[in-house]
Amino acid sequence: MRITQESAGAAGNGEGVAGERLAADHLEIEGGERLAGEITVSGAKNAALPILCASLLTAEPLVLGNVPDLHDVRTMLTLLTRMGVKVERKGEAVTLDASQITEPAAPYELVKTMRASILVLGPLLARCGEARVSLPGGCAIGARPVDQHIKGLQKMGAEIMLTHGDIVAGVARGSRLRGETLVTDMITVTGTENLLMAATLADGVTVLANAAREPEVTDLANLLVKMGAKIEGIGTDRLVVTGVARLHGATHDVVPDRIEAGTFLCAAVATRGDITLRRVVPGTLDAVIEKLRETGANVTGGADWLRVRMDRRARAVSFRTSEYPAFPTDMQAQFMALNCIAEGASQVVETIFENRFMHVQELTRLGANIGIEGNTARISGVDRLSGAHVMATDLRASASLIVAGLTAEGRTLVDRIHHLDRGYHRIEAKLCAVGARIRRVEARQGEIA
Ligand code: EPU
After folding, report:
1. How far is the CA of 87 from the centre of ligand 1 (A)?
2. How many Å apart are CA 161 and CA 23, to the nearest integer?
3. What is the mean pLDDT of residues 120-138?
4. How high is the mean pLDDT of the chain?
5. Which end is more exposed in the chain, N or C (fewer Cβ atoms within 10 Å of the end residue's Cβ)?
């Protein structure tokens, strides 16, 4: 099995075209409604993506449940299909059969639409001994290099070259990746996932000594164990993996999405609502719940549900993003929207990504009072926001504009919601079901926002 320049650069499958069409859709929100009722949370995007890639590690079928129907998931399924993986999808159930990997390559056309495509690198190298993956570029929230993924795989014995914008990786014929102790320079979520998947089929013991502990990493590790991987230290920052010769098929449900859940919790508190979330893992939201309680919200819960009630204006709460189990960067924008209308002043410090404040300019258009200095945003709560035409710049920024728009006086129009469709399954339908007035306006043909 060889990778050719032509096949690696094969033409796109229309994702870009779909992206443009979606780019023109927008959301209209009539603010001021109190949210009340129940919402069922979907499976986690950031767990589903690595888990889909884990199918590349075995010749036997992987049967997955609770796979969210998101744009990023569809892109990943397209990518895997192009590699020769047979995919069957029925609602939230997805079966993947990678008995034949015909093309161990992730072309630019797909990688440019979704950075998580890099997650095929570790599994392909481990199973096929070779891979060609287009180098992901920076994105709106930061430069986001993948040097730690590459360094780790090199230490495990992979030969890696960067050529024509692609990462071209291989292991000497007849040999496997070898177990090593790997200490990444910083904690990286997809870096940990890539190296963990590679290590399951490596020769010997791999120690990931600075591993990410995000619940999505844990969910992937639990699936890998079901597939026959030998992993110790799951849920800690030290994963010890004893490589095995082969992995087998497994059945697994993707963990519920803590960020989708956290987004709804913020929306409920911002609108002084009363919402119960079903199908959540409350323990994965401890840091967010703690901060919501500081706003004055009443949060209660059980094994797989959470209820949040708020009957007054929120108190402003300062926080700092950090790796799990601390406050997640993926909730920073949504919680900031809540702080915009809270009583008092707050400070939000973003420590994970260097450019994750693009929502600030848009929140300001709605009347928020925010100043930025370096990685710190200073927010003075205002009595109310007023509806305006705003533009989504990335996935979580889009969600923060929705939280803000739900509380604003009058109509808010959110453009470029294709970002939202990457990570939230039918968010407007879920919010309407609990009383929000929000609708998707499909673009007229040819119109690009
Ligand atoms: N970093 C490097 N070199 C590397 C890897 C990371 O310098 O080789 C840096 C990054 O630039 C960043 C920091 O390390 O400053 C942490 O990045 P990390 O690698 O942990 O991020 P990621 O794996 O690319 C995942 C999620 C993100 C989430 C972050 C942090 C997926 C598919 N993506 O990204 O999710 O924000 O972890 O928790 O799991 C989102 O869902 O909106 C999203 C952006």
Report:
1. 27
2. 35
3. 94
4. 93
5. N
- 355 or 156: which carries more pLDDT confidence? 156
List of residues 6+ apart from 19 with CB closer than 8 A: 113, 418
The helix, strand and coil proportions of the chain, stated in percent and rounded to the nearest 5, come to: 35, 25, 40
pLDDT at 15 exceeding the cut of 60: no
**Res 312: pLDDT:** 96
Residue 123, preceding bond cis, omega within 30 degrees? no
Strands (E), 31-185: 36-40, 62-65, 86-90, 93-97, 105-106, 130-134, 159-163, 166-170, 181-182
Nearest 10 degrees: Cα torsion 339, 343, 347, 350:
-10
Residue listed under structure tokens 């200095």: 373
Q: What distance in Å separates the CA atoms of residue 405 and residue 383, rounded to the nearest whole number?
A: 14
> Given a cut of 50, is residue 11 above it in pLDDT?
no
Give the distance (Å) from ligand 1 centre to CA of residue 188: 6
Cα–Cα distance for residue pair 226/325, rounded to 1 Å: 24
Determine the residue of 121, 135, 144 to mutate for testing ligand 1's pocket, defined as the one with the most ligand atoms within 8 A of the Cβ atom.
Answer: 144
- Integer-rounded Cα Rg, in Å, for the chain is 22
Contact predicate 94/254, CB 8 Å: no
Judge whether 139 counts as a catalytic residue.
Answer: yes
pLDDT in tens, 31-50: 999 999 999 999 999 999 99
Given a cut of 70, whether residue 133 has pLDDT beyond it is yes
End-to-end Cα, the chain, rounded Å: 43
Q: Is the pLDDT of residue 323 over 70?
A: yes
DSSP state letter for 117: G
Q: Which residue among 190, 192, 258, 355 is best mutated to probe the pocket of ligand 1, counting the most ligand atoms within 8 A of its Cβ? A: 190
Q: What is the three-class DSSP state of 63? A: strand
The predicted structure's pLDDT at residue 24:
65
Residue 107, token pair as written in the block: 């072309």
Q: Is 142 left (phi over 0), alpha (psi -120 to 50) or beta?
A: left
- What is the rounded CA–CA span in Å between residue 355 and residue 350? 9
pLDDT over 70 for what percent of the chain?
93
Which pLDDT band holds residue 444 (cuts at 50, 70, 90)? Answer: low
